[in-house]
Amino acid sequence: MNQLSTDCVIAGGGPAGMMLGFLLARAGIDVTVLEKHRDFLRDFRGDTVHPSTLQVMHELGLLDKFLKLPHTRIAKGTIEIGERHFTIGDFSRLPTICKFIALMPQWDFLDFLADEAKRFPNFHLRMQTRAGDLLTENGTVMGVTATGPEGPLAIKAGLTVAADGRTSTLRDRSGLRVEDLGAPFDVLWLSLPVLPGDPTDLVGKIKDGQLFAMIYRTDYWQCAYLIPKGGFDTIKAEGLAKFRDRLKAIAGFAAGRIDSAITDFDQVKLLTVTVNRLREWARPGFICIGDAAHAMSPIGGVGINLAIQDAVATANLLGPALQKGAPDFATLKTVQARREFPTKVIQAFQVAAQNRILAPTLASMKTPKPPLFVKLLNDWPWLRQFPARFIGMGPRPEHVTLAKK
Ligand SMILES: Cc1cc2nc3c(=O)[nH]c(=O)nc-3n(C[C@H](O)[C@H](O)[C@H](O)COP(=O)(O)OP(=O)(O)OC[C@H]3O[C@@H](n4cnc5c(N)ncnc54)[C@H](O)[C@@H]3O)c2cc1C
After folding, report:
1. What is the mean pLDDT of residues 122-134?
2. Exposed end of the chain (fewer CB within 10 Å): N or C?
3. In CATH terms, is domain 2-181+274-392 a member of 3.50.50.60?
4. Pocket, ligand 1, Cβ cutoff 6 A
């Protein structure tokens, strides 16, 4: 087995792992990121780059370069309940440099971070390398075992970070306990063509017990169709024709495109929704961040943003200790102390929305009455900054304080 050593090993090259790897390498820390896939190309992974992430890019001096990558911008959030149209969010009043959500394929975002991080000789990205288990000594995590193209590896590190997503292998190996908050729905993702004259805002639709969201992506619509938990097999058993009829009933201006665009269930990707969080995020020598610490519901599309915010906080809090050696357990715990509050607040909002609005709507087959807050947001444009702030920045937004070396 090949032996390596590094200051910090990070399992997972998603938004959390790549941002943390970049920030630590920028501060002169030797960091190794392990990513099990050969590239970052993955469909329907969530492509939202929120104003707070764009703010981080600005603080890092990377924003202008980043925004040269192809992207679309969402400045408003709208919802259709039955035949009525409501505007409920406005990002233009946010106290951030970018007053919009940028929609960019996640692989472009991750490739960008990887390219910037590779400028630092102390940044090592190992693709096609799967973290397998924790190396421990007297109860302290001392690194990981992994398998890469060149065979098995043992990587010793002063800090091991699990950023390997919501099915985290390292979290399972660590014995840290996950609290499941439950989710009564799953999401089917699909694409529909864009035609000239289409709107470009984010569209949410609620009608006759169906929930549908359409995200404008310049050359296609990225669409989310919500179904009761575990309901995809029933939908498949009913057949493609019935599924198309369901979509046509909710897709509004895009209904006429369903038959030609959806010709096989292979074009429909299932997201099994999970909402959970760790009770403890760390043990000596080891910490979980991003989805590995807290899987988020897709409501609000905040998972990537939260993962990035975790990475920034982890770099700020643990970077100075890593520059001197291995952070002690008390220092590791400061990350949970900082990031648990925003996670809990957002999950509480998501759980309330899914249990009070989504689940009853999916069960009723009726169009609900517009809630009072939706009417207020529509009638009072000034109020729309608050949901935009909650989604676009989140509670306790992070700023980069770990200096470049
Ligand atoms: C279908 C779908 C749609 C979504 N849409 C949105 C959206 O619109 N907006 C939004 O904000 N969020 C969305 N999300 C959620 C979002 O993708 C996650 O919250 C976010 O990516 C979490 O980032 P992360 O870095 O913590 O984990 P991940 O992005 O899951 O990254 C984990 C990485 O670790 C790698 N990995 C896993 N195991 C190992 C291992 N053992 N060794 C090495 N590498 C490993 C994986 O390949 C992956 O690259 C969506 C998720 C899904 C599944």
Report:
1. 97
2. N
3. yes
4. 11-17, 34-37, 44-46, 48, 130-131, 163-165, 169, 189, 271, 290-292, 296, 298, 301-305, 307
Query: Is 308:270 a contact under the CB 8 Å cutoff?
Result: no
Q: Which CATH number fits domain 185-228+231-271: 3.40.50.1370, 3.40.50.1980, 3.40.50.1110, 3.30.9.10?
A: 3.30.9.10
CA-to-CA distance for 54 and 59, rounded, in angstroms? Answer: 9
- Count of helix runs (H) and strand runs (E) in the chain: 13, 20
Domain ranges in the chain are: 2-181+274-392, 185-228+231-271
The enclosing H or E element of 35 equals strand 31-35
Residue 177 CB neighbour total at 10 angstroms = 9
Give the pLDDT confidence of 310-362 residue by residue, as tens digits. 999 999 999 999 999 999 999 999 999 999 999 999 999 999 988 888 888 88
The reported pLDDT for the residue numbered 165 is 94
The partner residues of 289 in beta bridges, in order of sequence, read none
> Same fold for the domain at 2-181+274-392 and the one at 185-228+231-271?
no
The pairing of beta strand 123-127 with beta strand 130-137: unpaired
Q: Distance between CA 403 and CA 405 in Å, rounded? A: 6
Pocket-testing residue among 32, 36, 109, ligand 1, by greatest number of atoms within 8 A of Cβ: 36
Own/partner pairs for 388-392, CB < 8 Å, 24+ apart? 388/77, 388/89, 388/90, 388/91, 388/93, 388/94, 389/94, 390/300, 390/346, 390/349, 391/50, 391/77, 391/89, 391/300, 391/301, 391/302, 392/50, 392/51, 392/52, 392/91, 392/94, 392/96, 392/101
